[in-house]
Hints:
By secondary structure, this protein is of the alpha/beta class. The chain has helices at about 15-30, 45-55, 120-130, 135-150, 160-175, 175-185, 195-200, 225, 230-245, 270-280, 295-305; strands at about 5, 35-40, 60, 70-75, 90-95, 110-115, 205-210, 210-220, 250-255, 260-265, 285-290. The strands form two sheets. The chain has a six-stranded parallel β-sheet with strand order 3-2-1-4-5-6. It has a five-stranded mixed β-sheet with strand order 7-8-9-10-11. α4 packs across α6.
Amino acid sequence: MEKTFIFGHKNPDTDSITSSLVMENLEKKLGNGEAKAYRLGKINKETEYVLNYFKVQAPEILENLEEKSNVILVDHNNFSESAEGIAKANILKVVDHHCIANFETSSPLFYIAEPVGCTETILYELYMMNKVEIEPKIAGLMLSAIISDTLLFKSPTCTKKDEEVAKELAKIANVDIESYGMEMLKAGTDLNEFTPEELINLDSKESEAGSAKVQVAQVNTACIEEVLKDKEKIENAINNFIKTNGRNLFVFAVTDIINSNSQIIALGDRTDIVEKAFNVTLKDNMAFLPGVVSRKKQIIPVLKENA
Ligand code: MG
Ligand code: MG
Ligand code: MG
């Protein structure tokens, strides 16, 4: 049997890592034993906490994708966020919860997308559809990603379905959602050992707003000031990124997961888009955005509308 590579997006988050592992588990149970999870980058602190908690090994890093390799994409579809060589791969399946952009295949495929808060919510439905039982460890991984992507159900991306699925998974995994979830999210806010360059690349997405090339990076914290104590160094790193990668706008969102707000740093030659989008005047390149926690729903679409 030919090997199948399963992976999520670059700068992987908990959903991308666990969905790859969970998809591998499901594929094996469905008889595709050659399917294997991979990752496209470093494991972040939150994901590390999850893998340690449920005693699961991180997927191997994907070194290179040969032409015509069989792949399954989870938690993304945009080629710019995918593996090098994805355009020449043979995409068998996609399980995702993002808008569909920059995606084309030469062969028919299994594609499932739903506007839910997390890829794992869709994977849960695939287990049910295929009548495959979910083991406690797998349930724990799935639950963790739902908590991560929805910020413990507080993000506007969270749907009723995500919450219902999370409750079922918590029973199987035998964990208390609130206390486990808070510990897990807090583990992800430990940003001390990252350099400013790493910080702005931990969870960073490329986008377009009108003709402007935009990058939106996000970190979670329990204390915004703590992250911004090195503001100048972060700004230098952002300006270097803009120069090297040719962006018109870089938005770095520092999201307070306790109070559900974000402080943003905006740099580049199109910061006017930010000022218009959020009706703010940047002071020291910064603005405070009350109630904004979701890049997908509250930042990127608003920038696009106001470019
Ligand atoms: Mg993701
Ligand atoms: Mg996701
Ligand atoms: Mg995310």
